[in-house]
Automatic annotation (TrEMBL):
Gene3D superfamilies linked: Winged helix-like DNA-binding domain superfamily/Winged helix DNA-binding domain
The organism's place on the tree of life at top rank: Bacteria
Pfam family, any one: PadR
Keyword Coiled coil attributed: yes
Protein keywords: Coiled coil
Biased composition (Acidic residues): 217-227
Protein name, per record: PadR family transcriptional regulator
Xref: InterPro entries: Metal_resp_DNA-bind_regulator, Tscrpt_reg_PadR_N, WH-like_DNA-bd_sf, WH_DNA-bd_sf
Coiled-coil ranges per UniProt: 126-167
Domain Transcription regulator PadR N-terminal stretches: 12-95
Source species: Streptomyces dysideae
Location of the region described as Disordered in the Swiss-Prot/TrEMBL record: 184-227
Keyword Magnesium assigned: no
Amino acid sequence: MSRRSGILEFAVLGLLRESPMHGYELRKRLNTSLGVFRAFSYGTLYPCLKTLVANGWLIEEPGNTAEDALAAPLTGRRAKIVYRLTAEGKEHFEELLSQTGPDAYEDEHFAARFAFFGQTSRDVRMRVLEGRRSRLEERLEKMRASLARTRERLDDYTLELQRHGMESVEREVRWLNELIESERAGRDLKGSASGEPARQDTTSGATDGLPRPGDDPGTDPSDDTAT
């Protein structure tokens, strides 16, 4: 399994832990909540869902809303498929949440992990944040050394691009320092002291600390009848 497909499976399990959804709802949440999934196709999502069903982590159910019931006979299409997390799927997702290995510090995986910090214990959040900070500090040191070696050979625009990249990493390090300080003080992102995981806005799909791209205006071309 590729790293990106692993991140997608993690994100799908996390979203379905909140509530059952059909494919279009999942794709919309992935687009709006997780910047790493701003652009991906149903051709990517549905194989992932099939894999999770085959592993016993999800089950498929027919849509049971009034809209689905009316639309199916009129269009000749089957009702939308709703995906629900199984007990085994919940257990597997919780196991993934507890992992703090090097993959959790990489760009795409960290964004997905951070989006589900509201479901993650404080000690795990701390290990992931500190690991991410160490990874970025190493990256920043290499960038500075490279710039020092090549500065004289770079034109003004390339030099400015290098500086911009360094400034972006420096900003994230400062942001991580603030988050780590809050975690050590026992505060969540809303500023309250608690030993419980920070709460997350699950109604709008927004996640504190992450980009909030606009909603995907498209519709599901398959009407969720893919199996």
